């Protein structure tokens, strides 16, 4: 009996040591939430493979990665994630933005010989406009291309076509497009944000003629119409959006400004 008691007492330090080691191992296992700017799924695939220092899981909706393991393992995984996430975020900020702006004229005048084939690129938008604004004629007045970096003021200006096909104008119309800054959010389906997008135009139009005493036309009179659209704008890459309309002379005519964007 005494021999068994001595043997049991001899085992106590060993059992206590094993229990302490297990308790220490459990206490050293931590969980950490790591927030990321980019899509977490590619990051999880890179750092969470065989031999990873910690177990990692990602959530795209919340843009977080959850790491579980020892403090040293979690810290190592976190450093790698932040390095990769910083590289991706810097690359996104460095991409340029290309805008294509279309200016359409909708008119109740009967088609005057101008072809509508020039709005083929806007076919989906054209169908939507017809459903809401059933003008007799749509005509593409201008197409403008703009490129810029992010977080920079950008503007351009140029000449506008006449609203009236038969008007012999000595003073052409003009336009200006600008926005304060552009930014991009999202990776899977990026959204391009344009802060304070502005379109303005000065367009002369035929207002009438002064007749000579014999009834012939002597002096042609023109007036200038001012158009202005200003808005904050969000665009998905490749999406064509009607950002604004403005009624113009001649009566029954409307200008439509359509914008599409892509990342370069």
Structural write-up:
This protein has helices at residues 2-27, 40-47, 71-94, 123-132; strands at 30-35, 55-59, 64-69, 97-107, 137-148, 154-160, 173-179, 181-185, 191-211, 217-236, 241-248, 253-263. Residues 20-26 and 87-92 have low confidence and may be disordered. It has two domains: 28-94, Ribosomal Protein S8, Chain: A, domain 1 (2-Layer Sandwich), CATH 3.30.1370.120; 97-263, no CATH class. The N and C termini lie far apart (85 Å). The protein is of the alpha+beta class. The strands form three sheets. Strands 6, 7, 8, 9 and 10 form a five-stranded antiparallel sheet that branches. A four-stranded antiparallel sheet has the order 5-4-12-11, with no helix packed on it. The protein is built from four helices and twelve strands; from the N terminus they run αβαββαβαββββββββ. The chain is elongated.
Low-confidence stretches: 20-26, 87-92
Between the first and last Cα atoms, what is the distance in angstroms?
85 Å
How large is the radius of gyration?
33 Å
Helix content: 25-40%
Q: How many separate domains?
A: 2
Q: Structural class, from secondary structure content?
A: alpha+beta
Q: Profile the largest sheet.
A: 5 strands, antiparallel
The helix/strand series, from N terminus to C terminus, equals HEHEEHEHEEEEEEEE
- Taking all residues together, what is the mean pLDDT? 77
The count of strands amounts to 12
Number of helices: 4
Strand content: over 45%
Instruction: Indicate the overall shape.
Output: elongated
